[in-house]
Amino acid sequence: xxxxxxxxxxxxxxxxxxxxxxxxxxxxxxxxxxxxxxxxxxxxxxxxxxxxxxxxxxxxxxxxxxxxxxxxxxxxxxxxxxxxxxxxxxxxxxxxxxxxxxxxxxxxxxxxxxxxxxxxxxxxxxxxxxxxxxxxxxxxxxxxxxxxxxxxxxxxxxxxxxxxxxxxxxxxxxxxxxxxxxxxxxxxxxxxxxxxxxxxxx
Length: 202
Fold this sequence. Notes:
Elements: E1 2-3, H1 12-24, H2 26-34, H3 40-54, H4 57-69, H5 74-81, H6 93-104, H7 111-153, E2 157-158, H8 163-172, H9 176-201
Helix pairs in contact: 1-7, 2-7, 2-9, 3-4, 3-6, 3-7, 6-7, 7-8
């Protein structure tokens, strides 16, 4: 028995394109992790705005917990998960609108919106915002695929998909992990060298 599944799930070609995009900007993501230009609540708001569009229940749960830890209110979180920005800080609004648009356009936003983002937030904050968007897009679609496979194993296969496609997408996601680990290790080693130079100069 097949089931209509309204959430977006990728095929391997689409996922690999998203992975290449993320890896191309992985240095920006590592920088955002260790030396963020936006605070944790802002980053979680961006992730929730994308997650609302893609409908990933796994990511919604995880980032709701993270957002609460970052000091966001339940009203702010609920509003974002409903697709609204009534409780969002004014300074985050354009970034959240862009994040929503990016997800709705399936990673192909209007170039003018990206230019506007850069004009408002500057290069460093824009890199942070985009890094979180790239990763949460991958994570959302991975989570949706896990949900689809779970339904299939219960005898409720999702239309326009298949077991091997879903399994391949789930496994393929983890190819970003060695890249991220290597980039983070390189970042830490580079910063240790810089710290030693500063100490030696002192």
